[in-house]
């Protein structure tokens, strides 16, 4: 970021970092907003309003838009957390290209459980990011590209 600023860039930057047992690896720097940008802007407000401080943003390839919305509705009727659709793209009709959703919960274990249920029922994950308002007061998002 210092390099970009030093060379005159001022604006949104999306950074994707792979974190695994071998370390942290910079994957991509996007000089634009990304799905994680919206999570950073929304997560603190949703955490305060709904009392769900942990969130996972996920880009998925849903098997169908109808199935995705049905599963989100089921998850949102439970007390464990909430799922919010940030964006969605379609080729035509009901053939989905990509959807970006955020899973909110009280703790990381529950967030990952709901995240897994959503993926198992209706889609394939492209990438995800995690924000924990309890532990990362600056709203740090860690992106794990798969």
Keywords:
two-stranded antiparallel sheet, 146 residues, 42% strand, five-stranded antiparallel β-sheet, 33% helix, alpha+beta, 4 helices, 7 strands, disordered C terminus
Explain this structure to me?
- With 146 residues, this protein is α+β, with helices and mostly antiparallel strands.
- Helices cover 33% and strands 42% of the residues.
- The protein contains four helices and seven strands.
- The protein has helices at 2-6, 35-50, 65-76, 108-122, and strands at residues 14-20, 23-30, 54-62, 81-92, 95-105, 123-132, 142-145.
- The strands form two sheets. It has a five-stranded antiparallel sheet with strand order 4-5-3-6-7.
- Strand 1 (14-20) and strand 2 (23-30) form a beta hairpin.
- This is ATP-grasp domain-containing protein.
